[in-house]
Amino acid sequence: MTPHHRGASPTAPWSIGLASALVPGLGQVLNREWVKGIALAVVAALAVAVELTTGHYADIGEYTPRTHGGFFVRGLWGLVTLGTQPRAMTVAGLSAGDHSIILMINGIFAVLVLSLLLALAVWAVRDAAKTRRRFLETGERVAVRAWARDARQRSFPYLVLAPTVVLLLFVTALPVAFGILIAFTDYSKDNLPPMQLVEWVGLANFRQLLGAGAWGATFFGVLGWTIAWAALATATTYVFGFLQAVLVSSRRVRFPRVWRSIFFLPWAVPAMISALVFRSMFNGQFGPISQALVDWGMTSERVMWLTDPANPWLARIIALLVNLWLGFPYFMALVSGALTNISPSYYEAARIDGASAAQQVRYITLPIVLRATAPLIVLSFVANFNNFGVIYFLTQGGPANPDYRYAGSTDILITWLYKLTLDNGLYDIASVMSILIFVIVGSFSVWSLRRSKAFTDA
């Protein structure tokens, strides 16, 4: 006997799903899943209650989203318009009006909450239709306890991760969305709420930064140096760290632990402290290095290591050397660990075949170590791409470059971004910069890691 002949309702699954879409929880109630239906109805009622209690729907008058809307309606209105009435300074203080940035944040928050509610509604529709389909096929209803037990067994990882995902959605996604949206506005120190309203400007900031004017020249100039800096900083620290690890691990070196401890000292000192010390040492007016060169007769006058606009590569080389001092112990530690996993039989066979020490390093040590550390080299490149500390605390982006806008000759993208925001209040341009940095770094990281054998073999 079919389920229909046993008294089952002939209602189609799609109609039950449609009922749950029109009235939250109704599909579950029609399926006689009372607990799930009531729970979904309560969530929907709470969302409606939040909108009604935070709005002014009881006021008599012409309805507008700005004056009558609640959390969701006014949030969406504010996100779209960014306000329509700026505030003004009066004798009694600031007049009533809109704050564009607050409206944007509230709008993003409302969109995130609505996204969660929409995801729950989609799940409710699919669950109602799936339950009806199963009932029509088997004629059996699943008890609440059995459903909860089955859901707990099948979805336990998701249930555990759900609170973290929701927290990340509001703690991480909200600031990220806010930073991205600012790039499409005219938010800057010359247009600050609440006295002025921020407006959407579309891709105007992107065209300005990537155009042929001064902004474009600055961006592409700083980008070129940033890529060169990241590549050189990563290559020099890796090569020097590799050589130090190979030398210290040699059987001819006595007291290797002592040497490793000495070489790890630059890594133990905070990078900011080391950068400030080197900045004092290379000070062109009062630094001991310039004074020593003059005293020894090697130069006729003090060398402006970090501030000579006519010789910007002098400051760049100093920055690379300081970064080498700070960064090589990291790769030395990594390579030293990788060397312990190389079987001595490889070197023994190479010596029997007449290979020199240099050939053993080139054809045995280097390929094996590179394979083990390739993903870390990529991550180091990304870290150097955004290496704010060394550049800012050593040179502060100098020496000055008259062809650049708010940037110096040693500025990389992240230090330029810092200057645009905190020093000059150009939040719209800085937001465009942050998006471009993310696209560049993210694309390179994905491309490099996918090409890495260590990554694909994992």
Describe the structure.
The chain is mainly alpha-helical and 458 residues long. The chain has two domains: 13-182, no CATH class; 204-456, MetI-like fold (Orthogonal Bundle). It contains 20 helices and two strands. It has helices at residues 13-22, 26-30, 34-54, 65-68, 71-81, 100-138, 144-182, 204-210, 214-248, 256-263, 265-268, 271-281, 288-295, 312-339, 344-352, 357-385, 388-394, 413-423, 427-451, 453-456, and strands at 89-90, 93-94. Strands 1-2 form a two-stranded antiparallel sheet. It is flat and about 90 Å long. It starts with 12 loop residues before the first helix and ends with a helix.
State the shape: flat
Q: Which strands sit side by side, in order, in the main sheet?
A: 1-2
Encode the helix/strand succession as letters. Answer: HHHHHEEHHHHHHHHHHHHHHH
Q: What structural category characterises the helix and strand content? A: mainly alpha
* Main beta sheet: 2 strands, antiparallel
CATH class of the largest domain: Mainly Alpha
Fold-level CATH name of the largest domain: MetI-like fold
Q: Kindly state the mean pLDDT as a whole number?
A: 89
The appropriate CATH architecture of the largest domain is Orthogonal Bundle
| Number of DSSP-assigned strands | 2
Distance between the termini: 53 Å
CATH superfamily of the largest domain: MetI-like
Helix content: 55-70%
Q: Round the Cα radius of gyration to an integer and report it.
A: 32 Å
Please indicate the count of domains: 2
Number of helices: 20
**Which parts are unreliable, with pLDDT below 50 for 5 consecutive residues or more?**
1-9
Strand content: under 5%
Subcellular location: Cell membrane
InterPro entries: MetI-like, MetI-like_sf
Pfam families: BPD_transp_1
Membrane topology: Multi-pass membrane protein
